[in-house]
Every structure is written in structure tokens, then in C-alpha cells.
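Can you give me the bound-state structure? Components:
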Amino acid sequence: MNIKKYLPILKWLPNYRLATFNQDLLAAMIVTVMLVPQSLAYAMLAGLPPEVGLYASIAPLLIYTVFGTSSALSVGPVAVIALMTMTTAGNIVSPEGEAYLTTVILLTFMSGIMLTLMGLFRLGFLTNFLSHPVISGFITASAVIIAVSQFKHLLGVSVSGHSLPGLLVALAQALPEMNLTTLLMGSGTLLFLYATRRWLGPLLTGLGVSRAIAGSVGRLAPILAVLVTTWLTAQFALIERGVAIVGEVPAGLPPLALPSTDVSLWQQLWVGALLISIVGFVESVSVGQTLAAKRRERIDPDQELIGLGCANLGSAVSTGMPVTGGFSRSVVNFDAGARTPAAGALTALGILVVILWLTPLLRTLPIATLAATIIIAVLSLIDVHAIKHTWRYSKADFSAMLLTVVITLLQGVEAGILAGVGLSLALHIYRTSRPHTAVVGRVAGSEHFRNIERHTVETSANLLIMRVDESLYFANARYLEDQIQTLVSQRPKLEHLVISCQAVNLIDASALDSLESINLRLMDTGIKFHLAEVKGPVMDRLDKVGFPQRLSGEIFISTFAAWQHLKAASKNHHDDLEVSEI
Amino acid sequence: MNIKKYLPILKWLPNYRLATFNQDLLAAMIVTVMLVPQSLAYAMLAGLPPEVGLYASIAPLLIYTVFGTSSALSVGPVAVIALMTMTTAGNIVSPEGEAYLTTVILLTFMSGIMLTLMGLFRLGFLTNFLSHPVISGFITASAVIIAVSQFKHLLGVSVSGHSLPGLLVALAQALPEMNLTTLLMGSGTLLFLYATRRWLGPLLTGLGVSRAIAGSVGRLAPILAVLVTTWLTAQFALIERGVAIVGEVPAGLPPLALPSTDVSLWQQLWVGALLISIVGFVESVSVGQTLAAKRRERIDPDQELIGLGCANLGSAVSTGMPVTGGFSRSVVNFDAGARTPAAGALTALGILVVILWLTPLLRTLPIATLAATIIIAVLSLIDVHAIKHTWRYSKADFSAMLLTVVITLLQGVEAGILAGVGLSLALHIYRTSRPHTAVVGRVAGSEHFRNIERHTVETSANLLIMRVDESLYFANARYLEDQIQTLVSQRPKLEHLVISCQAVNLIDASALDSLESINLRLMDTGIKFHLAEVKGPVMDRLDKVGFPQRLSGEIFISTFAAWQHLKAASKNHHDDLEVSEI
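Here's the bound-state model for the whole set.
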């Protein structure tokens, strides 16, 4: 049972049938054709030799087949993670040097360890620190940076920079050195890809072709662009005209690599590795969940962490780069009919065939073509609709998104995510730091109590009943003290204060301290402090530290019981029933 | 009205009477006598010349009288803030050098600006990031470091270090060089202070003296120790035996100072300044609130930020150090009968008299005496009871407290607070990331719905009603998706899913995205998605982005309405009422 949890392959492999194999094989062939140029492109985006992208598309896929729980997820290099790899490793060593690949391998290894540990210790909740607006803002800004960073390849010039202003300035300065042949080929490819993506689908469906087939034809466009420009470059010796090409890709199995044991390098990389792990996991699990839901299946997020973690460990020791489940490839895999994780293993075999025997075909593939495919791929990540939607829905969430976008563009990806997470947390603390509270009174003749500002209810000068609509914890503990002090200072005749706790799911140690302070302060002023409708688990904890014994008043089962008891107790003094009205 | 809010002095000064003045004057005289040795001691603790402590006890008190809202708060140097000043400024420049005082003045100035801005922009909620266990752990660990750091003065040796292990090692190494006369005087004072604090009060009350008077006599012990040891040192020329003394304190008004405009210094100090601001404010406001409550008054936390901010700005420009409301002095001020903030201004005049004419009396005050008073003062901050109490109440809160203590002792005060805040936030995210949810069924014959695992209720195979007991936000959005996927994958006959939202006070943009995903995924599997009992403000937001129109199902006013409508709709198919029982 437990073994099957940690080795999900044991659940499906024993029942694996030839029919399923045929479906998986077809999907794997289609994904392989898509993955070859993507692997090369994302390795280039990460500042790595092209073969590293192919290496990262073999071992990780085989390993995910054993440990993964999604039947359609296509693991491998993806654009945003490639950019994060570039900025994290590039901040420490120059991408031109020997040490760069070593640094990326260590980064991959560390990310693998972190993901695996998060899975084993069920720390997946850590990914919850990333709110959707922060992720969305981060991905949009990353896409802009990625797209702009690829313009150098369209122009055939050499510039570098991690932030948008730096990139733009460097591009402008390099403009005079641009290569016209490269520009023509690159912008031609870009236009072709844009046009097919924008107009081919609607055109074909307009001609009566089914939507599924029209979509598949559209996805063939990048492959076609690769084939045509590679052939053109070889045929017309465009290299002599200055067109940059992928060049010799060494054939053969991925070489084994051992991660560096340089402690200072580990210290420099850990924040980056953590962010890569979390962003990669979030992207992967949301694709996985969407696809699983379509078949009424489910994925196990903790096991997914282990699967992706082991995939990255495998990538690191086979000279690869950080990997995760990619959105577009996974959708293609699903649509093409992948039924089990075996489709991933078959894709890995396809890439293995390419790297063993077909690398000569890739030699004259122009860099500009890869750049054009990257630009078109990441433009779909820029989600203007999500930005507008968030603006309409919540200004607070929008501000977190905007900050993430701006800081990512100006200061880079790490700073962008950290600023967004910080602001999300601050906003959450702010929102819950002033919990909704209401002074309530009795609906005449009933056992119901309602807000005195919204309903005609009975109140009493010697008794104040306050309802708190939020759990009490460190962010709102002090506010409660302050608010009670305000209410009490306005009511000279007050003898009893009751807090009605039906919405309080938790009272943490800070809030307990506040309740103790409130109790002591009210005692000093001769007011008794009571609670009502305390939930079972909350009551258990209060009992553990003897709070009910220190409380000057009582804990009532219901607000009505408090009303009856405390009204009766003060009846002798004066008849003080008042009816508030709005 | 608004002017009175920002200048609270206008509220009480017009009605100021001679009787009140007499009460304030008496309190001011008592506090002044207490404040003189404290100012010298905390300046020493912060690594500053003794007169800086006195300077910080003049302008800030006058300014707080104008801007402050607490009638009993005694503003000035305090122990924990002095330690934080020492470690923050001492990390950048050596306390021996000229630049140290400049750095402390800038730190005070920055803290003043931060507090004032937090007050003007109502950012007081930022202090809520500090949970009580973190503050309590931080103060306990600081007290240990302060006490240990003073042992060098008792031994008459010179050592330095910000962390506990460093201090202990340095002290052990310096032991052979200790001065016996200093040790005798220092430990004698320490024993005397400890004994009076521990046994004098009970002894006097045992003899029939009232508790208030016994307490006042106890507070005179430090003054007595100062007078006696100063006299002894002068009388027997103990300086020649190596007893370190305060020395010449320059007489005269505080010199004006302009804060440094060195940008790199600002960058190095801002985290420290922020932490000093927040810790100082939290200490001050909790004392202020406790004392205000005793008189059924209240303080305005936002205005307190402005008051303390301006006090620190005043301290900075008059060559002072960071100040805040101190616990013990404020209690003495209150007990001695201070009625208005004028008592603070009168205390400032008292200190002014001391610095203009009485400084020669302070010359032979031994440093060891000040060290002994500091040690006794901070030992009362070590709150073993709070640690035990937190352990019993909540292991999660205890772990945040323990981490804060350990990191503060080992790595210093900044790292300690930041680690504690980080862990508190992580624990809060963890606690709310798995909100309590329950599948509910109808209590037969009623309109009530209860957890199917705890009650005998009616359920239906085609209808699932889930109650969520928490606001939906980024930390728990993904968990909800996952949980619904699990529930749905177990129920093949399901046609309708209802989420009952009576406890949902907020749906943020992340949670909205999750609801949209859940809606789409359920649509893919032919299940309709409904909501029930959505609160007004939450509904308004959902309407703003047109969510109800995209929802495959409906939004019902009550869970019962959903039950009636959806049961009726499926009645034709099959009679599938089931009764669950536990």
C-alpha cells in the first residue's frame, strides 16, 4: 500500500495493455517532435549548450514515469524555469565560462533535493505563499523579459542583461551591428508563426475542418519553420552571411555529472533553487490537476513533489537543467491520447534516438528560428485578461500583482517573486488585522441576536454583547483589545461584556494573551468578562491553561443563555432595556 | 477636531488645574530620581557616552507631552532598545570610534521617521507581524544577552560580542584580568538589589506596612545603591584601585545634531531602524494600554506612533538615542499619581536641572553599580512562566518562541526577530492552508444541515453539500481544489456540488481563480457547481467580475433552498435518499 503510494508506477504497470501502449506511443511521437526544438531553445534561453536541453529531456522523463501521478504531464525544460535558471546562475558566474554549467547542474540538484524533501515531509503548503496574482504577474513579466531577450538573436547581435531596462539599452546600442540576413529570416519566421497561430485555426474551422485537427495543424507550424529554415540555411550557405546556427550537437548518451560540493556555491544558490522549485511545482501541479480533472482522475500533490524532485535529481546527474511539467506540451500529450506516464518514458526514448543518431540534422538550424519560436510561445503567457480581471475584482490583489510585475521587470525574477510574496502576506495580515465585529442585540421575543446597527433589537446599558467574525490570532489580537477598550470607554454603566465566538475557529497564544489582558483590564474597572458559543477544540485549549478559572465572568453555551443569565442578575438594579433602531 | 486628534495636548491643557499640576509634579520628581541612573546605564548598554542617555531624556519627553495620548507613559531610553541600538550600529562601526555616535543619531532619526509615517499612513497594523510568543521569546533572549554583557563591568574587564557564545568565550578568556575591588563592589550591589527586590517587600508587608508603600521602598533600593557606592568611591579613592567610574559628564544643554546624509549608511540601517521602531512601539503601546484601562481611558495607537516618532526625531536632533515608553518607569509614574502627559514634561525639566548643575555628583558613580542595576532590571524580563504557558497552550506558538530565543542568542537580535516573524507567518499559512471543511447532510425533517461524520443525517448520491469553515484566500485555495477533486473522484453518481459559504468572510483573487477552475473542471465531468449562503460583501465582488454568469449552477440563499431545489430536480431519475449514521 505504502510502496504503491511512493511508486505510483506499480498501480498502472501491472494492468498495462497493448491498446494503451499504442495510444501512449502515438502521443509520445508527437510530443518528441515538439520537444526537440523546445529543448534546444530553452537550453539556449538558460545560456547553456543546446545538447543540455536534450539531456534534460531523457532521464527526468524516465524517472517521472516511475514516481509521477499524472498520466498526461510532459516533464522537461520550460521557458520560465529556463529564465530563472539563467538569472540565478548568471548572477554568480558568467554564462560564457566553464563554471556556468557546473553551477546550473548544482542548481538542478538542489532544486531536486528541495522538492523531494518537501514531498516527503508534506511541506507542499509552502507553495501556498505564492498567491495567484503574484504567480500571474511574475509569469507575465518573465514572458516580457524572455521575449525581449530573444530579440538579440533576431537581430544577430550579442547583448546581455537580466532586467528590462538593461536589455533595452543594450539592444539599442547594438542595433548598428545587426545582421540583415538573420533579421530577415528571424522576422519572417516570427511573422509566419504569429500568422498561423492567429489566423490558421479560424481559417481551417471556417473551411469546415474540425477544431481538434485545426489545432493540431497549428501546432505543426513551429516544426515546419524549423525544417524550412534549417534546409534554407544549409542549401544557401547562409552561415557565410553571418546567420548563427545551433552547430555541432555532440552525439551520444548524456555524460554523468557530480554536483559541486562547494559550500559557498550552495549558500549563494539556495534562494534561487527554492524559488525555481516552488514556481516549477506550481506550474506543473496546476496543469496536472486540470488534465486529471478532465478524466475524473486526481493527482497527489505530495507525490508530485517527490516525482518532480527525483526528475530534477536525475537531470542533474545526467548533465541536464531544471525541469518541470510544461503547459503546452502536456496539453498536446493529453490531446494526442496519452493514457499513462509510459508516454513520457516513450518520449524519452524518442529524444534518445535523436541524440544518438539524428544530431547532424540539427547542425544548420538557425538560432533566430529558435528565438522566434520562444517569442511566440511566451507571448501566450502574457495574460492581459487576468490583469484586468484582478483589477476589477480586488485592488489589493491587483497591487500585489502590479508590484510583482514592476519589480520583476526592473530588478529581476528573484526580487519580483519575493516582493510579491511579501506584499501578499502584508495584505493578508492587513485584511485580517481588523476582523469584522458587531455589537449585537436580541431580536425581540426570539433567541436570535443581530447587529444593532442594522436591525431593531433589544440592548441593555449594563450588558454589551460583541460578535467577532474571524479567528483570533496574532494579526488581530491587539485590534480586539483596542476595540473593546473603545467600546468600554463609551459606556459608563457597563457591568458585563460578552464575546460571542461562533465564528472563532482558532485562538492562538497571542490572542489568548490579549484575552487575559482584556480580562484583567475589565476586572480593574469592575466589568465582568464572559464568552459565549466557544467551539469545542478552542474550549479544550483554553481549559488546558486554566483560562476559564481566571475569567472574571462565565462561558455560556449560547448568546441567549448569556443574555438570560446576565439580564436576570442585573434586574434588581434598574430596568434598563433599550431598543436601538436604524 | 482634526487638530486635536494630531495635537492631543489641546484636549487636556485648557482644563489643566493646579491640583493636577501638584500631582504631576510629585510623580515627575520620583521618576526623575529613577531616570537619572537608568539613562546613564542604558547609554552605557548602547555603547554611548553617559550624557547621551540624559540628552535622550529631555527633548523626547517634552515632545511626547505635546503629541502623546497616554497620561502615564514615561518615555526615554529602555534596556531592550538600547541593546538593539548597540547591535545594529555596532555591526556597522566600532563603538570606540567617532562615527559610532553619528550612526546612532541617524538610527534614532530613521526610527523617528518610520514611526511618524506609520502613524500618518495608519500602518500600525505592521506591528501585528510580531506575535506575542515572538516578542516574548525575543525579550527573554535579549535580557539574557544584556545580563551576560554586563558581567564584564562587574569583573572590571573589557570584552565585546553580540551573541551569547561569543560573550561567554570572551568573558572566560578575560577572567584572569579581573579587578577584585570592582568585583566586590559590583557583586555586593547585585546581591543587595536582588535581596531587596526578593525579600524586602514581603518583609515589610509582613510587618504590617501597606503593599503600595512596600513597593515604593523597594524601588528606592537602586537609588540608595547609587548614592552609597558613589560616596564610597569618592571617599576611599577607589579609582586608584581600578574601579571604573562614569567620569566627567559635560554640563550644559544637549548639543544640536544633524543626521548624516550618507546614503549607504541609510541602506545599512533601515532594517535595524524598522525593527527598533516596531519593538519599541509594541512595548510602549502595551504598557500604555494597560495603564489607560485602569482609569477607563484609552490611547490612540496611530497617534502613539506619531508621538513616539516625533519623540525620536527630537532625540536625534538633540544628540540622543532611540527612546520609547518604558515599562517599570511608566508604572512608577502611574502609581505616583501622574494625571496628564505634563508629568513627562516636568520630568524633562528635572533631568535638565541635573545636566545643567548636578553632573559633578555623578562623576564617581561606579560603572559596576550601573551594571548591577541593569542586570536586576532585565532579569525581571525573563518570563519563564510565559514560556511554560505557551508550551502547554500551543506547540506551534512554542516553536516560534523557541526559534526566536535560540536564533537571538546565537545570531543576534535582528536575525532572531526575523526568524520568529518568518516562522509565525509560515505557521499561520500552514494552519489556514487546510481549512476545516465538512460534508453535510440534512437533519431529517428540519432545515438544518450537519456534518455527516458526526450526525445521523440525510444525504443523496447525486448531491454533495460541503461546508467550508474559513475565508478562502491564497493559502488555502489550492487545497480546496484538491479536496473537491478527491470527493468527486469517489462519487461516480454525483450531479450537483454545493459549497455552503456561511463562514466565508472573504474570497480573494486566488480563491476566485480556484472557484473558476473548479467550475470548469466540474463542467468537464458533467457536474453542476453551486454556492449557498454567500455573504453580501463577498457576493458583491463575485458579481463585479460576472462569476455567477459563468457558474454552471446557481447561488442559493440557503443550504436548505439548494437541497430542496436540487433534490426536486433529480427526483425523476431515482429515489436515492440515503441516511448516513455514525
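A couple of observations. Chain B touches chain A through 72 residues (CB under 8 Å). The first strand of chain B starts at residue 75 and ends at 76.
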